[in-house]
Amino acid sequence: MVTILVLITSVVGLEMLRVSAHQEVAQSQSPRGPVNKKGSAKHQPATNPQVPMKKAVNKATAKGFAEQLRPFLANTNAKVAVAVYSKRDHQLYEATNTKQTTFPSASIIKTDFLVELLHQRHQKASALTTGEQNATVQMIENSDNDAATSIYNDIGSARGLGQLFNNLKMTNSTALASGWALTPTTPRDQIKVLNKIFYENGYISNKSKAYTKNLMANVADDQDWGISAGSEYAWLKNGWKQMPNGHWIVNSVGYLGKGENSCTIAIMSEDNPSLESGEALLEKLSQQVGVQLKIAGAERKA
Questions:
Q1: Does residue 18 sit within a domain?
Q2: Any alpha helices (H) in the chain, and if so which ranges?
Q3: What is the greatest pairwise CA distance in the chain?
Q4: Residue 239 falls within a domain, yes or no?
Q5: Which residues on adjacent β-strands are paired with residue 253?
Q6: What is the span of the domain harbouring residue 173?
Q7: Selection from 133, 147, 131, 157 nearest residue 43 by Cα
Q8: Residue 88: inside a domain, yes or no?
Q9: By the 8 A CB rule, do 250 and 244 touch?
Q10: What pLDDT is attached to residue 222?
Q11: Which of 5, 50, 170, 283 could disulfide-pair with 229, CB 3.0 to 4.6 Å?
């Protein structure tokens, strides 16, 4: 038997439901259809205003959320965790099939680099250089590792990344002196970054938010997988990396829907037997989230 943990967070605390199962925009946030296709491109695996939280957990929604995700969490040997912030419910929903507390980031951490870079420039009232603009485009749209390392160095490497984690109270994320590709983090912590882009004001400017959304709306065609299966309206950044044992880290983070019927979502997994199986798992989970939480555009992807 496998125990699946489904967590629902509100201001009054954390409620844990245990379910047993058998093993196994530079464009604004306006509707724009699926992630814009750019064709195949080089890519590499690798105290602000807060969103208000309701005072009561929606038990019916929580139960339905658990039931919809249970089959996919139970019927995989991969370790996987999901976090979703619902704009309509003003609640964070979490689900996992493992007691593991953190996951290696792979390239989803590049979104964190961008947010911290824009924050630092906002603090200094300075613009991105031409080189930084070019690097951020390559880093997000094509997942280029050299461009990412350039931006990582610009923010102050591990010190700068750690500053982001501290500022956003990402208490389960750790910046490593050894490099960024396997940064330990959690879906919940990544939701904090995503909410600064899509829902909250203050950490980066509105212009910077629009810049980031535009990049996430224009990922290369061969990187349009993962959470984008949850809605025809999707902004995303994926991460993937094969480990020495042959298994794969496969992660996907972003935003689905529009208006009140929207969410930020982060899905992280490891020990996938192949990249393709990891992508398929994340897409099934994202589709279920979209339908269950009535995310705009989900019905056309189901």
A1: no
A2: 59-74, 109-123, 130-141, 145-154, 157-167, 187-198, 206-216, 275-292
A3: 55
A4: yes
A5: 237, 266
A6: 59-293
A7: 147
A8: yes
A9: no
A10: 96
A11: 283
- Predicted confidence (pLDDT) at residue 156 exceeds the cutoff of 70: yes
Q: Is 276 helix (H, G, I), strand (E, B) or coil?
A: helix
pLDDT, tens digit, for every residue of 24-81? 233 334 333 445 544 433 445 553 445 544 445 566 666 677 778 989 999 999 999 9
Query: What is d(CA 50, CA 61) in angstroms, rounded to the nearest whole number?
Result: 23
Full-prediction pTM beyond 0.70?
Answer: yes
pLDDT at 4: 54
Q: Are 68 and 17 spatial neighbours (Cβ–Cβ below 8 Å)?
A: no
Is the separation of the CB atoms in 301 and 290 below 8 Å? Answer: yes
- Total count of domains within the chain: 1
Q: Given this model, what pLDDT does residue 275 score?
A: 98
Nearest alpha-carbon partner for 153 in 169, 135, 171, 137: 135
CATH number of the structural domain spanning residue 136: 3.40.710.10
According to the model, what pLDDT value does residue 10 have?
Answer: 39
Helices 206-216 and 187-198: crossing angle in degrees, nearest 10, is: 120
Q: CA-CA distance, 139 to 175, in Å (whole number)? A: 19
End-to-end CA distance of the chain: 29
**How many residues make up the chain in this entry?**
302
In a domain, 232, yes or no: yes
What is d(CA 94, CA 166) in angstroms, rounded to the nearest whole number? 22
